[in-house]
């Protein structure tokens, strides 16, 4: 793996993020094993668009060679 670059979340990374998270989702629940990537993308989009979440400000994406390899979602306390 080459160097990892940390970037602010952009919606263009949503599909890649859903694919990366797919393995974790499938391992966490047997009911999710049949979920298609499209449904993962829809679930992730729905989660990120919840009131009070600001992915463009609070989510960081790790990329390597323009491929998503990690993420962090920061939840600021008020």
Account of the protein in words:
- The structure is a single chain.
- The protein is α+β, with helices and mostly antiparallel strands and 78 residues long.
- Helix content is 40%, strand content 22%.
- The chain has helices at 14-28, 37-48, 55-58, and strands spanning 5-8, 59-64, 67-73.
- It has a three-stranded antiparallel beta sheet with strand order 1-2-3.
- A hairpin with a 2-residue loop joins strand 2 and strand 3.
- The chain is flat.
- The N and C termini lie far apart (37 Å).
- The relative contact order is 0.26.
- The model has no long low-confidence stretch (mean pLDDT 85).
In short:
The protein has 78 residues and is an alpha+beta fold. The protein is built from 3 helices and 3 strands, in the order E-H-H-H-E-E. A 3-stranded antiparallel beta sheet has the order 1-2-3.
- Whole-angstrom Rg: 13 Å
Q: Element order, helices and strands?
A: EHHHEE
Helix percent reads 25-40%
Gap from first CA to last CA: 37 Å
Q: How many helices?
A: 3
Main β-sheet, spatial strand arrangement: 1-2-3
Oligomer: single chain
Beta-strand fraction estimate: 15-25%
Number of strands: 3
Structural class: alpha+beta
Query: Low-confidence parts lasting 5 or more residues at pLDDT below 50?
Result: none
The average pLDDT value, as a whole number, equals 85
């Amino acid at each position: 793996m080459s160097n990892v670059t940390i970037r602010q979340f952009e919606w263009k990374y949503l599909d890649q993020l859903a694919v990366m998270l797919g393995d974790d989702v499938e391992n966490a629940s047997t009911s999710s094993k049949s979920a298609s990537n499209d449904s993962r993308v829809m679930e992730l989009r729905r989660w990120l668009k919840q009131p009070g979440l600001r992915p463009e400000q609070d989510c960081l994406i790790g990329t390597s060679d323009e491929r998503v390899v990690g993420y962090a979602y920061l939840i600021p306390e008020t």
